């Protein structure tokens, strides 16, 4: 058994049996072969029925004429059959059967087989004859047919006897068997044609899917160029469109990954380079004054702090990118959460005389990851303070409805140019790089904020006018859904 299974797997039969091509092949075979099998049954059944009907009509036509002549020759009340005996024997021989004449007392007065003469014959067919009815029947195995005719006198048309004729149908059975053999040959040829046609047609029908598979294999091998255009079927067209959309997203993600790695390398390298330059400058000088030594060490400390901030932001971003399984959801008072963030930011705002206010329209209790949502909102509110002008204002508002809660962060700061607004959530993107470096920005704050909001299945939008201020709106579901 194991050897057979191994052989099946080796030749790929198991894989073929599970394939779409094999299923299409089976369907085509069933659809093609079933009518052929039904055709044979129908042909043979129709031939048999028509042959029996034809034989019965021919027998009935000839025997009705014979029965009428017997009634016309009647003299007295008794049937006189002497003149018809020879003709009866000939008819019986012609139809390879038997003829029996029954009088009005149900007595057999003539039997071509000479078996039942003088005996009484009472049967359903004979009784029907005396009711002036003709009956044509055949046995269950179609070995013979039986015709029963009334014999009527010529004057009053009164039934005076019954003529019962039975005829073998062996020739019909033999012809049916011969026809069955011929139909079997035709059936075999047609079934072979159906099998071959189904095999090649199934291969042809799945070819578009094979092209889709090859394209997906190229993607898995690292080839991302070229759209897929397979328009053979509606399904393959939809698969092509979905594939092209997926490919476009993969290209975007790949480009974003490469750009992110490049940006991370650059951002981490810059402080290290600055520290190395400062350290080399100190090492190259002899008898360095304490004031200069202190100044250079202060600059090195600032670069280390900058490096540390970049690393912390990167770690925060990695946490945001983790799966939903790492999300710690709990019921949280959003009003208190925002007030706590504002408490941390007020010292920074007071140094620049920036007014920081909160408008809380309703108490909001929501299912969120407190740590990640705090990090997201902190970045929005901290940016509103940092990228503001001295003496400006920052307003935070909270509201809710039956399904979502809303947080709005407004400021009257420097604003964001229109051309930069679609890029601000990208990692390491800075609107004004020189100004961002002055205030210690890493270009990851808004990326972290966006990831935190999306993790909660929320939405974040920005509205800004350069020189007038910026507004961020956040919408988050009250109930977290995985």
UniProtKB/TrEMBL annotation:
InterPro entries, sorted: BphY/WalK/GraS-like, HAMP_dom, HATPase_C_sf, HATPase_dom, His_kinase_dom, HisK_dim/P_dom, HisK_dim/P_sf, Sig_transdc_His_kin-like_C
Compartments, as annotated in UniProt: Membrane
SUPFAM superfamilies for the chain: ATPase domain of HSP90 chaperone/DNA topoisomerase II/histidine kinase, Homodimeric domain of signal transducing histidine kinase
Species: Jingyaoa shaoxingensis
PROSITE patterns with a match to the protein in the record: HAMP, HIS_KIN
Transmembrane segments: 20-38, 183-201
Keywords: ATP-binding, Kinase, Membrane, Nucleotide-binding, Phosphoprotein, Transferase, Transmembrane, Transmembrane helix, Two-component regulatory system
Protein name: histidine kinase
């Amino acid at each position: 058994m194991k050897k057979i299974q191994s052989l099946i797997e080796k030749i790929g039969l198991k894989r073929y049996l599970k394939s779409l091509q094999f299923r299409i092949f089976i369907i085509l075979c069933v659809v093609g072969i079933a009518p052929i099998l039904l055709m044979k049954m129908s042909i043979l059944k129709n031939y048999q029925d028509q042959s029996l009907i034809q034989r019965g009509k021919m027998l009935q036509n000839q025997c009705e004429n014979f029965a009428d002549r017997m009634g016309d020759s009647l003299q007295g009340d008794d049937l006189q059959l002497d003149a018809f005996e020879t003709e009866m024997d000939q008819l019986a021989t012609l139809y390879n059967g038997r003829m029996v004449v029954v009088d009005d007392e149900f007595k057999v007065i003539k039997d071509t087989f000479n078996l039942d003469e003088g005996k009484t014959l009472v049967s359903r067919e004979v009784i029907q004859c005396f009711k002036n009815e003709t009956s044509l029947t055949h046995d269950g195995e179609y070995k013979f047919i039986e015709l029963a005719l009334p014999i009527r006198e010529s004057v009053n048309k009164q039934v005076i006897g019954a003529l019962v004729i039975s005829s073998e149908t062996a020739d019909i059975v033999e012809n049916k068997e011969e026809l069955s053999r011929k139909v079997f040959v035709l059936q075999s040829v047609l079934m072979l044609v159906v099998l071959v046609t189904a095999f090649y047609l199934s291969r042809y029908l799945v070819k578009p899917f094979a092209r889709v598979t090859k394209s997906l294999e190229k993607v898995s091998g690292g080839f991302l160029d070229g759209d897929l255009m397979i328009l053979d079927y509606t399904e393959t067209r939809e698969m092509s469109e979905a594939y092209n959309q997926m490919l476009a997203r993969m290209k975007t993600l790949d480009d974003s990954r490469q750009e992110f790695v490049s940006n991370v390398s650059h951002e981490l390298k810059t402080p290290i380079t600055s520290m190395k330059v400062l350290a080399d400058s100190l090492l190259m000088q002899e008898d360095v004054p304490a004031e200069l030594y202190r100044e250079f060490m202060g600059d090195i400390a600032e670069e280390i702090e900058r490096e540390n901030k970049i690393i912390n932001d990167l770690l925060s971003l990695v946490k945001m990118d983790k799966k939903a399984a790492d999300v710690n959801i709990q019921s949280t008072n959003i009003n208190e959460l925002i007030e706590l963030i504002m408490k941390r930011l007020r010292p920074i705002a007071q140094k620049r005389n920036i007014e920081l206010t909160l408008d809380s329209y309703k108490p909001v209790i929501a299912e969120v990851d407190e740590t990640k949502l705090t990090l997201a909102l902190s970045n929005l509110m901290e940016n509103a303070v940092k990228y503001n002008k001295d003496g400006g204002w920052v307003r935070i508002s909270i509201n809710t409805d039956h399904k979502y809660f809303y947080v709005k962060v407004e400021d009257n700061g420097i604003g964001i140019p229109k051309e930069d607004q679609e890029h601000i959530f990208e990692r390491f993107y800075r609107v004004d790089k020189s100004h961002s470096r002055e205030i210690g920005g890493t270009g990851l704050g808004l990326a972290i904020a966006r990831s935190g909001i999306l993790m909660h299945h929320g939405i974040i939008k920005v509205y800004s006018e350069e020189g007038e201020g910026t507004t961020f709106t956040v919408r988050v579901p009250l109930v977290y859904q995985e």
